[in-house]
Amino acid sequence: MSLLQVAFAWGTPDLAAYLLSLGAEPHAPATIFVPERPYHTALQYSAQLPDESLLELLLRKGASPFASPVISYGATATQFAAMSGNFKNLSHLLKHGVDINEPPGDYEGRTAIEGAAEHGRLDMVRFLLEAGANVKSKTSSNYRRTVYRAWKNGHRAICQMIQDWKDHRYGPDECESVETIVRTMTEDELDFESPAAKIRYLKWRYQQCGN
Predict the structure, then answer these.
(1) Domains in the chain, CATH or no CATH each
(2) Which of 6, 53, 131, 207 is the most exposed place for a label (fewest CB within 10 A)?
(3) pLDDT tens string 52-110
């Protein structure tokens, strides 16, 4: 963990900018000390800010837009930009070739469209659908979690927009009713990016306990 990451984690982007002006390196990887306290990369933090200047600066200094998220409560820079509804930051990242379908942290992570839906970013969700967010199959966990999280947080317009978009693009056979998604959602499907992610996370927790 670097001092630059601490500055972002403490919510002091001005301090982060000052450290960068002094030559702070932006390459420290995301890390975690306890399951609920991740430290993201500097770029991942900056993607959440309304002002894109720090993200642009970090990219110029060579910060990787492809850096992996931490295993618990982690997200990529792309996912943080989507959750925040920040089109400018997302645009900068897309120009660097990021994938909007990249996986999040194994435990309690959010894909780009899932996080955007959860936070009520209707325009961002629509953009991600058109950009190729992977929601085609009616059994897709990404589709199911996206609809569920929008519903859970009261964003019914997003649920309806996704359903209408899928019906138009793929046909009704690839749509599942919101009621069925809500009724059949499981804790494991919500908590873990995939069954393989659950195994990785449990192994990681076991190793943490052993240390």
Answers:
(1) 1-109 (1.25.40.20), 114-192 (no CATH)
(2) 207
(3) 999 999 999 999 999 999 999 999 999 999 999 999 999 999 999 999 999 999 999 99
Pairwise CA distance, residues 178 & 154, whole Å: 13
**Helix ranges, the chain (H):** 3-9, 13-21, 42-46, 53-60, 77-84, 87-95, 112-118, 122-130, 141-152, 156-170, 178-184, 187-191, 195-210
Q: How far apart are alpha carbons 55 and 61 in whole angstroms? A: 10
Residue 196: alpha-carbon gap to chain centroid: 18
For residue 59, what are its two tokens? 């990219």
pTM: 0.94
Name residue, tokens 């959602």: 185
The span from the CA of 159 to the CA of 106, in Å, is: 24
